[in-house]
Design goal:
It is built from seven helices and 23 strands. The protein has 390 residues and is an alpha+beta fold. The protein has three domains: 81 residues, Thrombin, subunit H; 101 residues, Thrombin, subunit H (Beta Barrel); 109 residues, PDZ domain (Pdz3 Domain, Roll). The termini are far apart. The relative contact order is 0.13.
Length: 390
Amino acid sequence: MIRRRISLAPARLGTTLLFLALMALAACKRLPTGASTGVVPLPSGALPVAATALPTTSPLPAPLPGARAPQSFADLAAKADPAVVFVKTLQERRGASGRRRVIGEGVGTAFVYDPNGLIITNNHVIDEASEIHVIFGRKREVKATVVGRDPRTDIAVLRVEEKNLPYLPLGDSDALRVGDWVLAIGNPFALAHTVSAGILSAKGRTLADVQGLDESGYYDFLQTDASINPGNSGGPLLDMAGNVVGINTAIRAKANSIGFAIPINMVKELLPRVLKDGHIKRSAIGVHVSSVLPDDIERLKLSDENGALVRVVVPGGPADRAGLQVDDVIQAFEGEALTGPERLRWVASLAGVGKPVTLRVVRGGRTFDLKVTLVELPDEAAAAPDDDAQ
């Protein structure tokens, strides 16, 4: 094979390089922009970022070795029972003559979590009550007052003027695993101090799983097959160390052994605010969001079903002013990856009115960060059917 060596003189080499550079510049100028490229425009305040993995809400607990069922729950029940109280309420109304008349009575359960007289129960147990009494043991009845409440999570804190009470420590519901043993103590059908045992059946149950709840509420229920019935509301769900991991709250109607409890970690986030202000002042982004469905992944050029899909942008609200649009997917809030709309609603509601926050958003396959300043969520905000408002 004959090989020829070809060389360019210096003058011809310079001309060739100049010609190639001009062609490259011409090609750049001919690139279309905007909609003609298929690139979705971003809000003016958007900061484009590379689509990278974000940290999850919290690390998963380390796997633990399997444990055999306890031979008896008697010691645990005996230790916890003195801190569980029976709640009795009266609902009264004044007639035209000014006299009060009883229009209803209610019963439920509560538990002491602070030996200085602080008690936790469900808000629906004491809602609209004119008088509240708690019964320690079988007979000792004490008047209680409301320290604070949060109807959107269905919790309430009561106080009795007593000290050195037996109490239950608040545990860690995040560390609880599906399949772990749990114990419920309460007053089903006014049968005081009834104990039932079961396992944690599931975590993360929402409004879609428990019918009849307020659509503007916040739900992340633990599910258990420990027997829960009317009258158990407000009672403790305990782990095997005797720590409260949930507040027994609801049941699935016409089902067998399907009960729901508020995770105690959710309650612990709210307690300082309830004790200080008597209520929760919530913040909002100004959107209605829903879950990302399988059909949305291809349509919106997403990699998975994580995040919260924007269904409605409230006109004139903070999201609208920042440039969020319908079909945007909010994937992170202040650096925390979002698995779904429920987590976004929760963290946004507690972030603080007037606080500027950073949202990570996906639009048309492009990922960007957007600053939004939160406003106060109205007390009577109502969600659209099947949507989550935030």
